[in-house]
Structure formats: C-alpha cells, structure tokens
Amino acid sequence: MIVNRLLTLGSSRLRYALLPPTPPDLDPLPAPRSVTLLSDQTLGHGIGGREALLRLKQIPGKEFKLKKGDAVARGQLLELFDKGHAVISPISGTVTNMTPYVGDYGRVYMTLTIEAGETDAPPQTESFQRSDMFRAAPALPGKPDLPKTPPLRVIINGLGSDVLATNNQYVLKTRQKDLEAGLEWIRSTWPSASAHLMVVEGQQQEWNRLKGCRVHGVAPVYPAASPRLLHRTVTGEEAPSEASLIEAGTLVLQAEALAAMGSLYATGIPPMQKLVQVMGKDGIGHLISVCIGTPVSKVLEHLGLKAEYGDRLILGGPMTGYAVYTDDFPVCPDTDTLLVQAAEKGVPSQTPSCINCGACNRICPARVPVNLLLRVLEAGHYGEAAESFDLMSCIDCGLCSFVCPGRIPIFQYIQLAKYEHRRQVAEEAQNQEVAE
Amino acid sequence: MMSSATRFTVGHAPFMHCGQSISIRHLIIMAAALPAIVPTVLRFGMPALAVLLLAVGSAMIWEVLFQGISRKPSSARDGGAALTGLLIAMLMPMAMPWWAVVCATGLAVALGREIYGGTGTYPFNPAALVTALLLISWPHLYDLDRTFLNYTLDFPAIWPLVEVKAMGAEAAFRFNMGDLFMGREIAYIGTGCAAGLLIGGIFLMLTGISRWEICLSFLAGILLAATAFHLMNPALYAGPLFHLLTGSTLLVAFFLMPEDAGSPVLPLPMMLFGLGGGILVIIIRNLGVYGDGAVFAVLLMNLLTPILDRMRPKALGRSSWEK
Ligand code: SF4
Ligand code: SF4
Q: Which of A196, A243, A263, B279 could form a disulfide with B225 if both were Cys (CB 3.0 to 4.6 A apart)?
C-alpha cells in the first residue's frame, strides 16, 4: 500500500498469502473430548469491561439460562441471557465450568467448558428456521455479523482477513455448493441486496459460475481486503468514518462465513469446523480444519509444533491479531490464523520520540495524518484526535506500527484511543439522557 | 480453563516489523554522504579528513555528555548526533580551526538537538542552525578564498559564488561546468563534488529516506528562480545550472531539506516546502549579503513546516476535516 515512493526499492509492501492452484488436502483434527467456548458478554461502548465483569459476577449462577452440570447436545444454541450472544455446542456432553474471561479493550466473555460424554440431552431435532440464522451466525465459522436492517449490498471477502490467512481462498475453491446455498439465503432474506464477490485480481473469470454475484478483482496487497476498502472498491465511494459500514448499507462477509451459513441453511446442521492457517516457529504454513472450541494446545500437538515459555501464541494474524497467555485458549469462530512466534522474533516496542519520518503517513491506506495524530494521542487528547486528526478514519490495519523506524506502538495507541473515545462519547450521551 | 502451566508472552499487534530502525536510517544517510566526501578527502588529504573526524567524534562525545546530564537511556544514542556532526563538517571549509569545529558540534547537540528532546523533536535542522550561527558570528572562518592560499591547483582557485556576486554573471564563464560537477572547484568539504552528492542523493531518494518530493521540488525551485533572475538581468545574475552545481545546493537538497524532524511529510506540503526553499536560496544568493545562504533558506522553511502540515487530504470517509 506504499504510495508515492520514487521506486519501490526497499519498500515494505505486504501481500496476502495466496493458496497454491491445487488446494492442499485437509486433514481434519478429530473432535476433541473437551471444548471451551467464549460467549461474548461485552456491554455497549459506554460500559467498560469492569462493569461487564461485575455484572457477570454479581448474577448468581442460577440466573443464567445455562449452568454448570447442564447437559448439552451437539449443535445446540447456548445462551446465558435471553437475546444475548449465543454460542453453539460442537459436541454433546456436560457443561463443566463457567468462568468469566477478560479480553482486550473492555471485552468480557463467559467461558463455557463442555466435556464430551453420554448425556440424556435431547438431540437437536427441530431444524433451523430462517430467523435462527441471525442468532446462530456469530457462532458459525467466519463469524458472520448479520445486521437487523436489510443491507443494500453484501460483499464477500475471498481474500484473507490478515496477511497469512488462506481460509477464504480455500473455501472458494472447494465449497461452491455451500456458497451457493449461502447466496440463496441472502437472496431470499434480503431480496434487494446485491452480492459482490471479491477475489484475487486475475482470477475473476473462474468465479463467474457463481450465480447472481458480481465478481471484482482485488490486488492482493495488504490491506486491500479490509472491509472499508472493499466497500470503496465496490461502490467507488468511501463510507463515512463516523458511522459503521452497515449504516452505509454494506455487509462484509468472509467467504468462509457465507459457506457456513449456506451449509446451515441447506442442512439445518450448524457446521462447527473452522479452517485455520497454522504457522509454527519454523515458518511453514499448515491449513487445517479444527472444531471450534478446540484448545490451541491440541492443534499444536496434532501438527507436532512446539511452543515454549516466552514464545508468543498469536490468534488472528500477525498484523491485527492478539497474543494469548495460555495454550488452553480455544479456536474461536474468527480464528483464521494461529501463529507461534519465537521469543527472539518478537518486535519489542520502544518509545523514542517520533522522528517525523512520515513512513506511517505514506503507508496509511486511510490517509490518516499518523505523525500528527500520534502527538495528540501521546498527550491523551482523544477527543481532539477524533475531531481534528482523523482517529476514527483508521481502518485498523496496523501498517503504521509495521513501518515505524522508531518501533513506536502506534497501533496500540490508536486502539486504546478509539476505545477510550467511544467510551467518552457514550458516557456523555448517558449523562445527557440523565440530565434531560 | 486457561490454567495450563506454560505461560506465553503477550503483546499488541502488529507482531511483524519491516526491520527499519532509526539508527539504520542514520547510518544509511551517513553512507550516502561518502561519495561526496571521498573525492574531497582524496584531493585535499588530511585537513579535510581531520575536520570531518573531529566533527563526528566531538558531536558523539557532546551527545554522551548532554544525554548523561538529562539522564536519557543509552537507546537514545541512535547516531543522530554523529550525522549532525558530519553534516556540519560537510558545510565547513577545511581550514576551520579545531576549536570552532568543537564549538559548532557542541552548539548543535545542545541547542540544536538535546534541548528539545533529541532526535526527531527539534524544529530546526541542527546542522543548518549551527552553520547559520557560525556564519553570522565568525564570517571570516567561512571565507573559502583564504583556505586555499596554500594550494596549487589546476583549476580556478576562486570561490565561484562569491566571484559571481562580486563580478557579475560573466564570471560564471570562468568556471567549467564539468569541473563544477566533478568537484574541481573551491568549496566546503562536502559541497564540492556534485557528482558524488547526486549519487548519494539518488540513493537516498530511492530508499525513501530522503523524500523525493522535497529534493526534486527544491531543485525545481532553484532552477525556476535562477532562470527568472537570469532572464531579468543576464549580466548580473548567473544561470540556473551554475547555481545548481555550486555552493551547497545539492547537499541542502538531499541531506538538509528532507531531514525528518523539520520537514512536512504529505505530498502537497512537501512540494511547497521544497519549492519555497529553492526559491529562497536564489533570492538570498542574488539579493542578500551572503554568497551562499542555503542554510538560512532551510531554517526559514523549517519555520513554515507546522503551517504546511495542515494542508492535508481528507482522511478515509471524512466529510470534513473538523466537524
Ligand atoms: S492502523 Fe490505522 S492509522 Fe495505522 S496505517 Fe492502518 S489505517 Fe492508518
Ligand atoms: S513512522 Fe514512526 S517515526 Fe516515522 S513519522 Fe510515523 S510515528 Fe514518527
């Protein structure tokens, strides 16, 4: 994404990993004996992680719709509250543990551990209704985030979510039936929405067989497959940065998510196998199919990969993912990549003053004046950052940190600022309400 | 859940880096200066080398000293002072007395760099700042004609810019453009060899370390303004090519103007910054009292950077800059 450099000598262009023309055979991991599911209990923007955690802790177990010792069936939708975030049990068994878990930036989850076993839970007989799709979607592989209002267009991301992920490309190559069923669901649910498939540039011809879908080529240069940039490729316009993409009428789905929806729609059974690109310390990539909820340690064990004290376990890609502290952490619906990074390969952050080299500005795909933004962020002026320095235009690609010669954790500053800014705005809105 | 014995290191995304670092950048810039320095050192020998080494060495010692006083971590020593020292020396005649060199680097490190907080924080290019200070305080030290009294040379031992200032544009014909290009002229240590500066400059532009928008628009500014003056009064003002090859034009274009801290980083501001700098250089040379006032032009443009920085494109999905 580097622009206006005289030549690209020594440039830091990042490209998406591409799948070889003949996709590899997958060897699926056997279903684990025990799975851990993360049920998202994050409250709105105005309410921090602390409050969400307190809420979880203060409700005694009996008030949840689910409790320890409950028997669950394979494919059953599990919810803690009515209208809460649902997870789907990939195995039949018993809930053996429920513990809150705190993620980054105010995200709070309830972890549900399910041990496989003979249970008397009734097998899931009634098939899924169309409206069930909305409840089940966030628990499906690829984590489709379906809006309540009909979108104008659905954009299907056939590239990766991060530089290493090849799951979407694999799905495009191998699961045409599911994709068609998914498109069918979209067409019947939102008849007025147009569908757009985004594939690697030069491969458009191959996909014309997918009915009712306009195919667009995208140069596989990171972060061209980022939702807002896909929106721009399709519509030729930029969605307002103050509002979500949905408000601009665009729903972006990973190809894997569409295939999962299609499979659920066609068979009534929610698919629970997630495609994960795994890379160990040797730098060799493996694409495998894993049951959602499988602990990371099991995945590594299966592939014979080692991860030791001090290494990093990175879920969700090297540019935008997150590092977890334990290998008990489960594979989630959106875990496209699993990376083991040797301790010495990490990028230690430093905090020298910005030398104003402009590398961040030049690489920023959102034209954010990152060098100026950084100065207000260091001072903690988040409101000013959003108003005058385009904080909210950032599309979270992480390239600014990637190129900064000072190794300043710019991306972290930006994420923190966004979180704090949203919180401030929501709090002000609440105060306003109380005052009125 | 989440209770296994092995603990992993956490951190924030991204987990990759392109490998560039501040000290590598400084080293690359210093390496890019070598093609311009080596011919001079070969031609004039020890005096030139002595000034260069003294400047770089003393700048580094000053840096240790001042950073020690302000209790900075050793990671703050990133080669920035050495680079400043090198650039200062490149802007000095080789007859510079040792005490003036040490004073200059001390001023540059203290007043130019550390007082603002070190690398990246200073509003003015420290090398330009100190050269300007010395030019004002001790103008006789920068008198090039004096420097070369002891040499017998096979090219005119006259300082081109001053000669033209005193004798009018005709004097320019006494200098062969080829000589000027290859560094066969009287000049400061690092400004003589236009060919070497060009090699280093092109290298810096290709690696993206010197932003080409600034370098090229600066040269464009020089050419435009010099042509305009020349057309107005060909007898008084020398032509554009002469200005391009003499004095510190190329050194300023590739090493001082695009220096990170004091220059804007967005395309339009960079162009204006360079263009303005180039025009100012010619104005100062033709109308001012100094033969070569390029460093003053740099300082003036540094002053404008915060204003220029405000001219920026709308960010992704912004309907207005400020709501
Ligand atoms: S993370 Fe945001 S600010 Fe940084 S380069 Fe990407 S879009 Fe720009
Ligand atoms: S890349 Fe880093 S050092 Fe360069 S301008 Fe951006 S924040 Fe400053």
A: B279
